[in-house]
Amino acid sequence: MVLVIVGSINVIFGLAAIFEDEVLTATGNGRVIVWDLTSWGWILLLFGAFQLLAGFALFGGAGWARWTAIVLAGLNAIANVGFITVYPLWTLLIVALDTIVIYQLSAGWRPGTTYSGSYDSREATAARDEMTRLRTGL
To answer: Would the pTM count as exceeding 0.85?
Structure first.
């Protein structure tokens, strides 16, 4: 879910960089730097689309999407450090969300574990408890 949020933010951020492509930054000694963000906006737009694709593939249970999502989140966190002078709070939010995505996809993943089972003759709480035991290993 967080990867879909990050991908959506990157799509919005990319569109904003494409449509409002010149940003002014004032330095401490009175100089002004003009940043042109058009190409960076296109990169973020495409990157956000890949993140959305990987996020929705994770919802579908695709095995390839896990490592793809980890790589995309890591690259996104590194790439957004370049935006820290333009949008500091927004960039820190995106880097924090990418860190959460990487942790969630790498810390507790058990490949090949299925969480669906037969619930024919058991009541719902017993089946839920059995699935919890299976998932946690307790």
So the answer is: no
